[in-house]
Each structure stands twice: as C-alpha cells, then as structure tokens.
Amino acid sequence: MAGTASGGARRNRLAPYLLVAPGILWLLVFFVAPTITLAQTSLTGAEGGWPAYHKALTSYGTHFFRSFRYALAATLLALAMGYPLAYFIAFRAGKLKNLLLGLVVLPFFTTFLVRTFAWKTILNDGGPAVWLLQRLHVLDAGGRLLDTTVAVIGGLTYNFLPFMILPIYVSLEKIDRRLVEAAEDLYSTPAAAFRKVVLPLSLPGVFAGSLLTFIPAAGDFINAQLLGSPNQQMIGTVIQNQFLEVRDYPLAASLSFVLMAVITLGVLAYARALGTEDLA
Amino acid sequence: MSRRESDVSDADLHAFLRQAITRRGFIRRGALGAGGLVLGNSLLAACGGGKEGAPAGGADSTAAAASSGKTLRISNWPLYIDKQTVPDFEKATGIKTEYTEDINDNGEFFAKIDEPLKRNQSIDRDIIVLTDWMAGRLINLGYVAPLDDSKFPNKANLVDNVKDVSFDPGRKYSVPWLSGMTGVGYNPKKTGRELTSINDIFDPKYKGQVTMLTEMRDTIGLVMLGLGKDPTKVTKADVAAACAKIKKARQSGQIRKFTGNDYAEDLAAGNIAIAFAWSGDIQGLAADNPDLKWIAPKEGAMLYSDNMLIPKTSDRQDLAMKWIDYVYDPKHSAQIVAGAPYLSAAKGTGAALAKIAPELASSPLVNPPDDLRARLHVFRALSDAEDTEFNRIFQDAIGA
Q1: Confidence of residue A9 (pLDDT cuts 50, 70, 90)
Q2: Hey, is B229 helix, strand or coil?
Q3: Which residues in chain A touch residue B214, judged by CB atoms under 8 angstroms apart?
Q4: With CB atoms 3.0 to 4.6 Å apart as the test, which of A33, A138, B221, B330 could cross-link to B302 if both were Cys?
C-alpha cells in the first residue's frame, strides 16, 4: 500500500520531466547541436576564430545596417497594415471572420519563392505597377521598381505580413469584450477605450508579431536577391555566398553568430521597452 | 511561348532553391525549345566516325558487363541529352543504365560528394559531369579514377583543341560531355546599335540596364578580356583589376544585377539591354524574341566545358568506360546534340548531325568559324586557395 503510494508519487514527480523530454531532445538535436557545430566552424581553420570575427564585425557593417534598416521598415509597415486588419477581423468581421483569416493564411499554400517571383513579374519595367505609377507621375519615365530598395522592403513586408497579423489577431480575440463595455459605461470615448484597454492588452501580440516579422526579415536573402540590385544586398545574401560560393565557412559562421547576437540583444531591449520580459 | 516562360521561371526557381546560381537549368531548357546554337568542334569533321568499329555494341564485351549484373549510374545536368541515347545504349550493350539529372550547380554538387569521397566512400555514381574548373578540383583532390584508354578506342575522336587542357593534360581523367560559350547578349532595340565589344556593357548610356553573371569565371573572364588580359593565365592582379572595374560599375548603378540564368528573363522582358550571356540561352530566346542577339565580342568569349568523370570509389568503372566510349562515336554524339544543341568534342559529330538534323547542322554557330574559335578562352584552373581568394574579391565586387 505504502509502496504503491510512494511509487505513484515518484511517477508524479517524474512526469513533468518525461513530458518535456521530447521537447528538450528536439532542442538538443536541432538547436543546441547545430549551434555548437556552427560555433566550432567559426573557430576552426586557418582563418577561424578572431580573424573571422574581426572581419565579420568590421567588413560587413553596410550589410548589417542595411538588413536591420530594411527589416525595421518592413516590420513597421507590416504593423501599420496588420494591426487594423487584425482588429477588424477580431472585432468587426462577424461571419466573415473565418473567411478573412483563411485569406490571410492562403498565400502560404504557395511557396515563399514562387510568391516572390510573382512580384518580379508585377514590378517589371514593362509591368502594370510601373505603368500605373508612371501615369500617376510617381515614377518618372525612366524610373523602375524592380531592383530597388522599395521593391526589397515591399517584398519583405508582403512576405512576413501574415506573421504580424496572426499573433495580433490572437491577442485581440482573447480580450474580454466586457472590459471595453465597462470602459464605455464609464464614459470613455471609443478612442480612449482603445488606447487604454484594447491596445495595452494586445501588446503581447504586437510584440510577438514584430519579432516574427523582424527576425526572419533581418536574415532574409531571397527578397534582396530577387527584388534588389547589388546595392541592396542584405547580410543573409553575404552569409549564403560565403557558405556556398566562397566556401569561407569560418567567416560565414561568425557572421551568423554576429547576426544572432545582435538580434538577441535587440529583442531583449525591445522586450524591456514593451514590458513583456516574461515573453522573451 | 507560355511554355518558354514557365520554363524560365522554373529554372530560376530551382536556382534559388539551390541557393546558388547556375546557368544550366535554363540553358538546357532553352536548348530544347529552340535549337539554335550548337555543337561544333567539327572543324575536323572530315574524320568520319566509328572507324574504330564502335565496340560499344560488341557482344563479347557486353557479356562481361552484363554478367556483372550491375547498373551504370550517371549523374548529369538537366536536359543535357536527347531521349533516345540511354535506351539505345542499354539495347546495344545490355547495361542497365540509371541516368539522373541531379547536377544543378557545381558547388552544390561538390558539397554533396566531397565528404564521402574524402573518406573513400561510394557516392553511388559511376559517371558525374562537372565543369572544367570543378573537374580540375576533383582531379587535384584525387577523387577521380583515371580513364582506361584500352577501353576507350573512340578517344581517337576527341577533337585536338581539348586534348590538352590545363586541368587535365592528356585527358587522363576527364573527357568533355558538351560545351558552351559565354559572351554578350543584347537587345538591339534597347541598345539602338549593334554591339561588338565587351566594354559596351560599361557604356554609361546603358546605366541600370546591364547585368553580369554570378559565375565568377565567366564574369571576371569577360571583363579581363575587355581589359586586354588573357583569362587562361589569370593572376591575382588581373582579378583585382577586373573586380575593381566591376565594383565601380556596380556602385555607380551601371550594373542592375548579377544573375544566374534569370538574366534571360530580364532580357526578354525588356528590363535590360545588355547581359553577359550563355550562347545557348540567347539562341533559345531568339526563337521567341528574334530581336535578341548573342555575340562573341571582338575581344573574345569564354568557353566552358562539362566533363565526364569517374569517381574513384565507383565499383563499375568498366561500365562507365563503355558509356564514355559509346558517346564518343559521332553517330551517338550527333544524336545527343540533336536533342541538346551544344558543342560536342567528338570529331565527326557535325557530319553525322547533317544527316539526322540538317537544319541544326547548318546553323552558323554549329560550326564556329576559325576566327571565333581563336577568340574562345578557358579560365585557368585555380587551386583551392586561389579559388577562395579570387571568389572573396569577386563577392566583394558584386556586393554580396
């Protein structure tokens, strides 16, 4: 009797560990191990270690800054477009809610690459976008969209927009509507109710959405490669080239680490600023 | 037309999936579509083929191969062969053949086979087809088995100008599969004039309307020729000079893009006026868009070849030799070229092609005239260290 009870207790104590074991194992195999290998790569070889990190830190400043600038621009644009849409879906869409959510997710049914290629066609010099903008005198006669900064940031925004919309939608959806009603009962204007109730409660979604947009956008290379000229290449392009074309593995690995470090610091600062440390 | 477009983007897509840019996918698709350019190396076409008796079909040798009961495994680039040659070869020799089009990029393929070959393990391939410089690297690394000339009587058909290449003197380890040329492609409607020089690409009139290739050897080679340097003897100083010129043009906005096969799409779409281009691509596009032209500039053009190699770990080298000997029979090489219009290195291919595809054989580029031949250059084989060093300078120049 006593034995069974203590056996059960022991099993209960072990249960949480057993439950997280698959997750831990997954992280060990697919995150920790590759990270260690990458670290080793960055430190080995004639040019590994300090020379590689030194070069990564000194020679690619333009690419790093450009990447963060583009990623930031894309994140802000995605937020500006994504928040109102998420708000509309969560509060105003009614029966259309599922349809609209479906439409947000729909682009994922086609691969990232194909969709970015489609933009190439749309932004072609002889394509509809350039034609229209030239008629509207936004672009001059010789102007172009493809292979410009505008195209790259536009592509990043487009590709990562759903990652902004979905988390914001989820956090808005969770908000107890009675809180908004209470605010209104207390003579709050709709604007004040939004500012003091809805917006703060949706910040975790904004936080998650901006990370899900910013981080992949900063490391992206497809958009820069397809939609940008050589003067719009991002740090992802450099890493890819170092790995596959130059085969300078230590440099490529140290560039990856520098990118990771900068992003991690950025995320921590952002979490602190937004007061959502527990999420980070 | 629509077929062509979808093929272009398909090829482009693959290029990016590979995360490395390559010309092959497109060229080969282009070649199928259009069949302009082709084959050549038939300056000595008078030497008919098969006078060695084409032992590929010989029953005695077949017996040995068939008794081993093993399958010959070939890796090649996509759409680089006609449809009939593999079944014909199987019928003639009794060797079951697995022909896979799984090479899309030299660097990427190298990344796949480097580790196992380093450890002396099988890569499950008996023939692989790689470009000169990569073939040279594999030979240097000792990854390639020597060709057994006693089983390669058709080696006599190898055209003279590729018998001694810097990466494989005497062709002990490699023989060409097919070759192509890198020169200048342009749209006369956009340039407003005929082009003759490589340096037209630096004309400020075409600012933002020109592209160069991400393939280091092609782009540096052509720019070097424009500077009056010889890419067959490339030095670090040459690379630095060429790259300085490229970097300046890139920073000024002269160069719109560095591309793989996707320049063809830009050229056809009218986004660009001039591109460093592969001969097969433009010929393919010309069928749809007769405006486009490809020239081997007066300063010269680059010649690249893809070579058959037998990995040292192959346990079926006798079968591989059968295949190599088979495709060096001009009757067979002509059939391959009829399906994949490129330059063959088998003597007599031109004559044989004239019989089965006269319209192809009479194309002016099928049989490059002597003056064009004299202007074709092959980039010198680089050591691994040089390759890394030059690539670094080049990647910096192209802004990546």
Answers
A1: low
A2: coil
A3: 245
A4: B221
Chain B segment 253-282 residues within 8 A of A by beta carbon are 253, 255-258, 265, 269-271
Q: Does B20 touch chain A (CB under 8 A)?
A: yes
Confidence of residue A216 (pLDDT cuts 50, 70, 90): very high
B267 with B312, same domain: the answer is no
Q: How far is CA A137 from CA A124, A142, A143, A153, A163, in A?
A: 17, 11, 10, 21, 33
pTM here is 0.74
**Parent domain of B154:** 55-179+304-368
Per residue in A117-127, pLDDT tens?
899 889 988 88
Contact check, Cβ <8 Å, B108/A113: no
Are B216 and B166 in the same domain?
no
CATH number at residue A270: 1.10.3720.10
Residues A106 and A201 in one domain: yes
Domain presence at residue B35: no
Interchain contact B65–A (C-beta under 8 A): no
Q: What is the share, in percent, of chain A residues with pLDDT greater than 70?
A: 94
pLDDT tens-place string over residues A46-83: 788 899 999 999 999 999 999 999 999 999 999 999 99
DSSP letter at A96 equals G
Which chain B residue is nearest to residue A224, measuring alpha carbons? B400
